[in-house]
Structure formats: C-alpha cells, structure tokens
Amino acid sequence: MNEQELQDLQKMVETAVEALEDIKAKDISVLETQEKTSLFARMIIASGDSTRQVKALANNVAVSLKEAGFEILSTEGDSGEWTLVDAGDLVVHVMLPAVRDFYDIDTLWGGEKPSFHAGAQKPWHAAD
C-alpha cells in the first residue's frame, strides 16, 4: 500500500471506531490482517449488548463510512446476533458477546481474546 492508501485506511478505521463508540459498543478490537490475507487490510470486532444494539452498531458504521466517502460492498446478517459490514479494505464484525466467545475470531485472526468483564468470570460460555 502506498502512503495515500494507508492514510485512507486509517481514516476508514477511525470513522468506523467512532461510529461504534457513538452507540456504546463494547470490547472494540482493531486487527491488522494484510499479512494474513489479501482480501482486506484491517478487521474491527465489537460487541453489542442486544440484537437491537448489534443491528444499530452495524448500521451506524455503514452510514458513517458512506458519509465519509467510503464504499460499502455489503452488509451481512440480519438476525442481530452477528452482523458484518464489508467496506473493502476494512471488515467490521459486530456480535453478541456469547456469539463472539463461541466463534472466537479475535484469536483466530491473531488478536487477543477480549476480557469481557475485566478478569471476572463471564456469565456465558461457548458450547462444549
């Protein structure tokens, strides 16, 4: 990536993170993925407390990115348990905490598993 593409990517990430923070997303992780895949350069993973909040978070990300001049290629997942926003070089996953715990894509893509309750035991667990 050249310098301009990196600046655009950074602006895209900042816009998406701000959109998530505006609606009180939890455990926001930004992962660099360009060394692992050529499909996208960054991944953001965030949690919402309810299906309604997950949907609102994903919608706010898509709207904010469009308003900033970025193209949204697709949005997947209408159930509200897990919604993905594909913006080309940036992919945003918004999930319920139990779904995020079960699929554990944070560690799958080389990030750290979020500490959902700052060291306290989680009230849920992935199916055995």
TrEMBL record:
Any one Gene Ontology molecular-function term assigned to this protein's record: ribosomal large subunit binding
The keyword Hydrolase belongs to this UniProt entry's keyword annotation: no
Encoding gene per record: rsfS
UniProt KW keywords: Cytoplasm, Repressor, Translation regulation
First-listed, main subcellular location of the protein, grouped into a coarse class: cytoplasm
Record-stated family: Belongs to the Iojap/RsfS family.
BP-aspect Gene Ontology terms: cytosolic ribosome assembly; negative regulation of ribosome biogenesis; negative regulation of translation
Role, per record: Functions as a ribosomal silencing factor. Interacts with ribosomal protein uL14 (rplN), blocking formation of intersubunit bridge B8. Prevents association of the 30S and 50S ribosomal subunits and the formation of functional ribosomes, thus repressing translation.
One of the record's GO cellular component terms: cytoplasm
Keyword Repressor: yes
Entries under Pfam families matching the protein: RsfS
Subcellular localization(s) per the UniProt record: Cytoplasm
Oligomeric and partner information: Interacts with ribosomal protein uL14 (rplN).
Name listed for the protein in its UniProt record: Ribosomal silencing factor RsfS
